[in-house]
Amino acid sequence: MERDPFEEYYRQLEPSKREKGNAWNTAIGLQAVDGLKTSEYLKDTAIRNIEGEISFEEAQELLNTYYEHKPEKDDNRTEEADKVSARIAAVLSEKAFTFTPNQYLSIHKRLFNGIFDHAGTIRDYNVTKKEWVLDGDTVTYGSALDLKETLEYDLSVEREFSYKGLDIDEVIKHLARFVSNLWQIHVFKEGNTRTTAVFLLNI
Predict the structure, then answer these.
(1) Collapsing DSSP states into helix, strand and coil, what is residue 12?
(2) Which of 51, 78, 135, 203 has the largest count of CB atoms under 10 Å?
(3) How wide is the angle at C-alpha 146 spanned by C-alphas 157 and 123, nearest 5°?
(4) Global pTM value
């Protein structure tokens, strides 16, 4: 019998309950980092996905339908938190990733498509923002003129960095510096923290 030329390629297996549970827990936690709260409906939907009753795609469709027919609109961004949580859980459960600027932009687009009109788009003006995690203080973000080049530079430097011979404390220190630099570029108008976290978790 002739050898199957495609045997080395196989369809990605469905994540385990533990993997899906971790993905959902992380996704919901990342909303809290931005001061957002998810709904009970989202938690019930997540459990159905973890138990294998519905897929990630079906979970997202259920959330879309739920908010389309919800009589009262929320003003505390719960819809955003729910939809982005489902998308983060799906992305974290995939085994496909490239360490590139395009992947970074793609993650933002996937998480915020239909939520922000600038999903996946590099901001074109300078920003300043009071950060609650800094007790209302701000930081200097990247200049709008250099965002693409700065993103490419930071990722290329990290791609070339060797972790060989580093102990765990040195690895953590280096990663913390890399992630804080990546976040401080603030490539997008909104959604930088969640995008950066998902990018890091996929590495």
Answers:
(1) coil
(2) 78
(3) 110
(4) 0.89
